[in-house]
Amino acid sequence: MPASITVSSHPTVQYLLRIGDTCLIHAQRLAEWSGHAPIVEEDIALTNMALDLIGQARAVLTRAGSLEAELGGEAHDEDQLAFLRDERDFRNCTIVELPRGDFAVTMLRNCALAIFLKLLWERLAASSDAELAAIAGKAVKEARYHQEHASGWVVRLGDGTAESAARSKAALVLLWPYFAEIFDDDAIDDAAAASGLGPRWSALADDWRAELGAVLAAAKLEPPAERAFRSTGKTGVHSEHLGYVLAEMQMLQRTYPGGVW
Amino acid sequence: MSEKQEWPLWEVFVRSKAGLDHKHCGSLHAADPQMAIQLARDVYTRRQEGTSVWVVRSDQITASDPGEKSSYFDPMEDKVYRHPTFYVLPKSLDHM
After folding, report:
1. How far is it, in rounded angstroms, from Cα A61 to Cα B14?
2. DSSP single-letter state for residue A197
3. Which residues does A259 contact at the CB level (< 8 Å), separation at least 6?
4. What homologous superfamily is domain A11-255 in, according to CATH?
């Protein structure tokens, strides 16, 4: 088994890893629907969206790896960053590593994340890092469609049958406590805001709440009360679920180092 | 699934680029027009096939009866004079 890599702790690299890892792990969970969605059209739609997110993760991780070298460290490519990092070195928000759940969980999570990522990409399009700005300009179009697709489903299920409404409500109760982490700032956000790399994620919270709130209202769903609980995936301390995602995702490269097909 | 629960069928028309017609390219099941448009985008334009999509409920299309094909279309076989190929075009018109 190839040794795990150690990644630069530079705030610029860490800010990019948060974005790239959130897209990457979210994509893994969406891809679990491949071959299992309720209808074939939706199967294709979810896989398309997972592939959009993989593309975004690839671009951002590639940039993070090249910045490592520019900032005086060792360069890493996208594959090394995805397949040779240990769990504690992943910087995705905990929300994306939670099990895919039923269709209501998947759609609500995708809706909330698509709104967040859309708002983030819109701001990153003006990043001081020209490459990140270019990635954002392309990704924002994808996120807009993900939001449209998922919010349609949230409304359809929330304001649907008694069964779909009950499942939507349960999904909201399950996921809600994990959204707060996204918008909690720390020194990584301070550095990104100061250098012009990207916004503090807390700066996106009001717009996110307003847009998601409008979808929930149309879906006849009530946002649950805020809780003191905070997940900590962005700092590398994950739920018990991420290890299983990584075991499956990294198995081939760990077993056959450098293997290609 | 009972007939009542099954989502209606939609016919999908895709325009490949501005100026061309929308062409029928297939069908899909969807619960409502918005979902039909989204799924048409996801299923039929994944490889840059389209710039515009139309969907029409399949049960809203009235089609000619295949059993009447011979009486409907065969009589046109020997009406070559309906093609405007007997006119002599002025030389200045190269292509038409």
Report:
1. 35
2. S
3. A252, A253
4. Ferritin, core subunit, four-helix bundle (1.20.1260.10)
A82 near B CB under 8 A: no
CB B38 to CB A44 under 8 A? no
- What does the pLDDT look like over B42-91, one tens digit per residue? 999 999 899 999 999 999 999 999 999 899 988 888 888 888 877 888 88
Provide CB contacts within 8 A for A2, sequence distance 6+.
A84, A253, A254, A257
Using DSSP, state whether B57 is helix, strand or coil.
Answer: strand
Residue with tokens 């592939």: A51
**What predicted TM-score, i.e. pTM, was given to this entire model?**
0.90
User: Chain B: nearest CA to A47, how far in angstroms?
Assistant: 9
Structure tokens at B94: 């190269």
For B77, the 3-state DSSP assignment is coil
Distance CA B36, CA B8 (A): 10
How far off is chain B from A138, nearest CA to CA, in Å?
15
